[in-house]
Amino acid sequence: MMVESASETIRTTPSNQNGVSSLSSQSDGGGGREGGSNGDTNGEISPVDLLHLQQQQALQAARQFLLQQASGLNSPGSNEVKQSPVQVPVSMAMMSPQMITPQQMQQILSPPQLQALLQQQQALMLQQLQEYYKKQQEQLHLQLLTQQQQQQQQQQQQQAGKQAAKELGSKQLAFQQQLIQMQQLQQQHILNLQRQGLVPLQPTAAMQSLQQAMCPSDLQQLWKEVSGVPNSEEALKQAEGLDLSTNSSNSTSAFPKAASAHIPLHSMPNGQSHTPKRDRARLFEWISSFTKADSGDDHVPLYSKGTQPPSSHHEEHVSSHPLYGHGECKWPGCEALCEDMGQFIKHLNNEHALDDRSTAQCRVQMQVVQQLEIQLAKESERLQAMMTHLHMRPSEPKPFNQPLNLASSGSLLKRDSEAYPEGLPHPPTSAATPITPLRQGPSVISSSSLHTHSHSHTHAVGPIRRRNSDKYCTPIASELAQNCEFYKNADVRPPFTYASLIRHAILESPDRQLTLNEIYNWFTRKFAYFRRNTATWKNAVRHNLSLHKCFVRVENVKGAVWTVDEVEYQKRRPPKMTGSPTLVKNMISGLGFGSLNASYQAALAESSLSLLNSPPLVTPPSAASLNMLHVGHDDVSSTVEQVNSNGSCSPTLSPQQYSHPVHVKEEPTELEEDSRPVSLLAGITHSLPLPSDERDLEEDLPTEELE
DNA sequence: AAACTAATAAACAGAT
DNA sequence: AATCTGTTTATTAGTT
What we know:
The chain is 62% helix and 2% strand. By secondary structure, it is an all-alpha fold. It binds a DNA duplex through helix 16 and helix 23.
């Protein structure tokens, strides 16, 4: 994530506009969106610089906007904050406003908010553009005049000749070309930035891209419409003003032509009023061109192949519509109530037909999606790094925090989940994102990592009595599903009680019954940890089976199998986590993540992840998830677990593998005692299940969170 | 501090 | 006889 440096922020202040030298070129290939100007304008402010400036201003305005929003959210009276489409903890933004990146901003602001911002910024930009071009033209005019004077003098002195006249013409041409070039460069710059995804897809960026595709009047009209302001003469006036200013100098008459020349879609001669029909066709063409270009870009591959392209109003599903939910139209900024699907479709066709407004909104939504995808990619990358790091961890000597862990694994666990700092390996990108509540909260991995550490010392000193409080580990199904591979390969003690593990194993089996040996095998198969100290944990398993009433021994033809008495199991464990609905809601909305206690966070994270992780099982998740969370945490997990028991627990384990447990059976028992640590490590390094896991998350999270 | 839960250890019995 | 399975008791440790 990019952080605005102080110097860059300073540049945004108008008073600093004279600092021409600071705007010198620094073409950025892919590092950042800053710089990238081209010293093409004789030491004057280049168009690119101007854009940069506007961008920065937009950013600042957005920041202010955000702060307002945040303070509004934070006020005690406004507990019932309407959930914005993109759920990002405001606290993140609150911490240090100047650290807010455009992306974060984009995330935090809802489309309507973005639109408002856009409108605001657009006015500003137009004004500045006007000023800028006026300045440029004046200057050019001046230069032309002096040139002409010189020429005249020359003519007078050296008697007029054809050559001189020619020279004059060429010089005039040169100036014209210079202007054109400037314009082109500006356009190109924006285009490039956008293609590279480097433009902070901020209000300004969206505007610029719009601007790039349309003439000023188009732009004006579009945004007037988008923001709900009736398209009045004022807009035209403003547009005209801009056009006039550009045409004011005879030497710049070529500008509009040039501007339109290299924008393929901009076929309209400037100032000419065009029919809505043509306009629409053009817009649509523009949209599809954008989509096409996007799909070609492998930087954001998810998008074009995604489930719902932005122009989803073309496809109307009979049963459900992505833009329709909870009796509301989900079109950005629209919350029209529609009783049924028919009414909604009617509404969709009437209110959101293919017109300028819809197109613009669509555009904004595209930007939002694109931005989210970028963000997602970054987060995924971070997660990957974290996982890689943690996977490597057991192999590393950890002298520094060893005594700490020995003291008490449990208390360490608590402390860690509250705030991970101290001796623990920090997830990367600490510099870029000093405060990311999301990282602390729903990271299933984090809990695993904690056990990694506490566990690794267990071996050093012998068995410690590890208390796996159910609080931390109730949603065994999701945790397992998430980190199945991890536990399989890493010699990490799973954060579950024996009882819950046994139950899970049994419920996971096809017949919901297992022999003792099969349970053993399940343990060894699923957890590297249980490939050693077999006498100990097997004894524990037996002990648990006998002790807990929830495990019922059933005599079989071939012997005996163990089953689970679910009622008894639930009886045994009183619901420890019963958050108030409002609290849970707040947590979900991301507002409370920062202050909530760790167990709540973890539990929430896991439960929500479990929902996300089992799409085929919990078919309509959006509506159900909230309600289920209200019921209580245990219920969620148990529900999922039960349903889950039919299928596979992990994406990497196919059902077939389950149906042939015999194959795996003999293996572990033979090499069990002190099994090969080398191969274990090897497994750790090369078998990273993350890609697939992340994929699932990637596909599910955004749609979930956005609802 | 007490009550509770879970992990661990171990003794023991019956079955294979 | 050895091992597996199952039960039971005791101890320890962590949590509430």
